[in-house]
Amino acid sequence: MRRGELIGRQAEMGQIVTALAAARSGHGGALFVTGEPGVGKTRLAAEAVAAAAAADMVTAQGRAGTVGPIVPYRPVVEALLRLARTGLLPDPEELGRYGPVLARLLTDGRGADDDAASHIMVAETVLRLIAVVGRRRGCLLVLDDLHEADAATLAVVEYLLDHIGQQPAVLLFIAGREPCAAAELAARARQRGSAAVVDLSPLARPEVHLLVATELGIAPGEVGPELVHRAVTCGAGIPFVVKELVHDRTGRVPAAVADSVRRRAAGLGPLGVEFLCTAALFGRRFPLPVLHHALRREDSELSAILRAGVASYLIVPDVASTQWYAFRYEWTAQALLDDLGPGERAGYARRAARALADLYPGLPGAWCAHAAELHGHAGDTGEAARLYCRAAGRATAEGAVERAVELLTRAHRLVDPDAAPELFATVLEHLLDAVACSARFDLVPAPAADLEAPGVAHGVSAERRAGLHARLAGIATLRGRPAEALRHLDTARSLLGPRPGPAHAALVDLAAAHVELSGCAPDRLATAAAFARRAAQAAERGGQPAVACEALLLLGRLAWDRDEAAATARFLQARAIAHAHRLPVLRVSAEVYLASITARQGGGTARVEQAGAQARRMGAWPVAQDAGFVLALDRIQRCEFEAARDRIREGAAEATRLGMGRALSLWRLAEAVRCAHQGRRAEMQEALELLAPLIDAAPGLRSMAYGPARGFCSLLEEQHEAAEQEFAQALAYDAENPATAEFGRHGVILLLGVLAGRMGRRHHADVAEASVSATRWNRQFVGLAHAVLLGREGRPGEATAAANAALEAAEPYPTARHLCLRLVARSAYQDGWGAPVDWLREAEEHFHGAGLPSVAGACRALLRGMGAPVRQRRAGTEQVPPDLRRFGITVREFEVARLLAERIGNKDIAGRLHISPRTVEKHVASLLQKTGHPNRAAFATAARGLATG
């Protein structure tokens, strides 16, 4: 579309075009076009004029106005003068006795004496003039801004409405929606049927998008999403505002829009302007009781202002509360504030702040943030910052983390580190804590990254600067920047001094524990635990429950592989402290870890899902990411690969958006493990290549990349030598830099070692001592390793029992379970325990269906070595029901079985399948032998429902 074309008004324009066509046939009509300011009433009238002109109709336009003295009949006279300028005005003689009235209108704007009779004379003159000028092709008369018209003009309009029906003309009247005589006239005309009312609504989002594109002269697809969003949200569908926003990219309210607000506000008088400007200090919504108290005016005066403000499309009643009103559009408040001088704004703000404090002592709930904003407007930045901090603390206690970050960001903008260094430090401490909870790293103030630079925080004590650097070290750890974290930690230690207070020492020790985990040292887990214990003790002495909670959570994470009971106790202790001190984010963190322990034991992931969802609602993204990673790994182990893929993609996108390098590295690892557990080596390698730049962003990633990823994939490819090397490499990395997550040491590595003869009872006992060996995932490997050892010790009954218990634990993990069956089958067969043939058939069936030919082929080879019949994998195998495939029944045998179940003889079976009777006999014998039935009658009875259909 070309710039200037009408958008979103096709239906309204169609109504006007229909009326024009009727007028050309001698049937007149009238339409009122109404709507709020800027919605496009005059623009629609211009389009109507263009359509009439294109149809060779006579057009005349006039507009009422408020500038200068009142001129009776102004829009009518203006329309007549336009006709005169174009030479279309008839001679007065053609109008007979009404000619003098026309002459007088055009000379002094008066039709006759100013009374009711004169209005009728003027109206009849106009009516007859319309009949004359429109007698050939019809006429369109447009009168704009009738809401500003004088009473005489409206009297003429009313007369015209009642008599236009038999004239070749269309009357198009433009008026606002606000209560006025013109609006009442339009309502009466609609009721009487003498006019239609075309009410223009704001444009919808697609129409705004198209309008932006036409204004820029480009295709809609070329418009940037940010500009579309701004035009939709700020423009509110008002074409006038949208156009101004498109051409004014300053971010401020466009001058023309501000001028429109200013004019309408001025129409409410001085008290109205004072009311609106005070209201604007609160933002888009404002509380009536506070304004009433601040302005000290009578109820009747304020009620009149409210009615006038609503009528002027400036304010609306708030839908949520009768005690609140709101500006109709968000730019209205900003336009009013921009129009205030600093002194005027400060005066209004101080008065509103006093009223707020009087009405709501202690500033409960959201009033604290409102008071902070008012003090900011008043120039009292110190009090504003303190109130913002108090409001942010309340928001954090309520679990509104992102709201807390927003409030603290406002506070930080107000504080001058030179003028108020201690307040600056307090605000920055709270802001960094909130940033760490929310992962809004983009809101870390630039000066905070270099606190020791001259003039940044020189008035802040060394200990407090140490605490700030400790917080920055923690944030750098979350971002996956270990070098930056270490730099901040070193600075914090240098500032702390030889005898630090417990509060600051706790912060630095907690940061040291996190940094230690990101380092590379054989004893790093023990060192990190020592720092965390020291931090917990110092935090308790220093009265810092949040730091104590974080230290306990870290201690629990460090202990849960080795001593699950101790880890659970730490998490429970942290949760209790968080609950007692209203620390919801830390409470949910403890819930995630406790739920993860339950899930690892086979208790399901519902609690993890619930805690993760709660963290998301709070805006506590690091906690939500931890929960998501636990869920993704669980889905992978359960072979719910599509669900895992979706969760990994969502989590990685969030981590990338938030700049969480540590979390992103875990998602990259999860994707590699997902591909590995499906035997997709090429895709696994791609995921590991993406992980490579982030390999040191989180502890233990190298071991995980070799164990659950490369090693497991090699086992599914029957590359056992490669798998052994990869698991050995995982162990080597763990020795250099111990992992905090299980990578196979307490599960599959033990089983492989026992099967290879490298590990025995002592190794099994050592592994079994660790709590992590008792997770449901690891119980399958540890239990089968125990069964193998029992079998070698000549205890087949106990070995079978141990194997059955392990396989029961393995039920939720199909691929791992069947891999275990394939791995232990040879040992079970040789030592005479378990059901190796059945296991191999079951495993072969699973791996064939999963598209893993190497391990499926290994199962078939082992079956042949055991002298067991092996099915042929011909085309159509999927037609054989799973219960029959488990017996090793081939496609051809299944075809025979279906007919045999119908008790058909060998000769007829041979005829139907086009094979010899002798071949049928062989297939029948094979079926009986594989299924264990004594004769064909018994087989037919047992298999009829299974084999037919």
Describe the structure.
With 949 residues, the chain is mainly α. Helices cover 66% and strands 4% of the residues. The chain is built from 46 helices and eight strands. It has a five-stranded parallel beta sheet, with helices on both faces. The longest helix is centred in the middle third of the chain and has 19 residues, at 524-542. It is flat, with a radius of gyration of 41 Å. The protein starts with 9 loop residues before the first helix and ends with a helix. The mean pLDDT is 89.
Gist of the model:
This protein is mainly α and 949 residues long.
Number of separate strands: 8
Summed up, the helix count is 46
Q: How are the strands of the largest sheet arranged?
A: 2-3-4-1-5
Mean pLDDT, all residues: 89
What share of residues are in beta strands?
under 5%
Proportion of helical residues: 55-70%
Overall geometry comes to flat
Q: Terminal Cα separation, in Å?
A: 62 Å
Structural class: mainly alpha
Main sheet summary: 5 strands, parallel
Q: What are the segments in which pLDDT stays under 50 over at least 5 consecutive residues?
A: none
Gyration radius, to the nearest Å?
41 Å
List the helices and strands and how they pair.
Elements: H1 10-24, E1 29-35, H2 41-54, E2 58-63, H3 74-85, H4 99-108, H5 116-133, E3 139-144, H6 151-163, E4 169-176, H7 181-192, E5 196-199, H8 205-216, H9 225-235, H10 239-247, H11 255-266, H12 269-280, E6 285-287, H13 288-295, H14 299-311, E7 315-317, E8 324-327, H15 330-338, H16 342-359, H17 367-377, H18 381-397, H19 401-414, H20 421-438, H21 462-478, H22 482-496, H23 502-518, H24 524-542, H25 545-559, H26 564-580, H27 584-600, H28 606-618, H29 621-637, H30 641-658, H31 661-676, H32 681-691, H33 701-716, H34 720-736, H35 748-756, H36 761-769, H37 776-792, H38 796-809, H39 814-831, H40 836-849, H41 853-865, H42 882-885, H43 891-901, H44 906-913, H45 917-931, H46 936-947
Parallel strand pairs: 1-4, 1-5, 2-3, 3-4
Antiparallel strand pairs: 6-8, 7-8
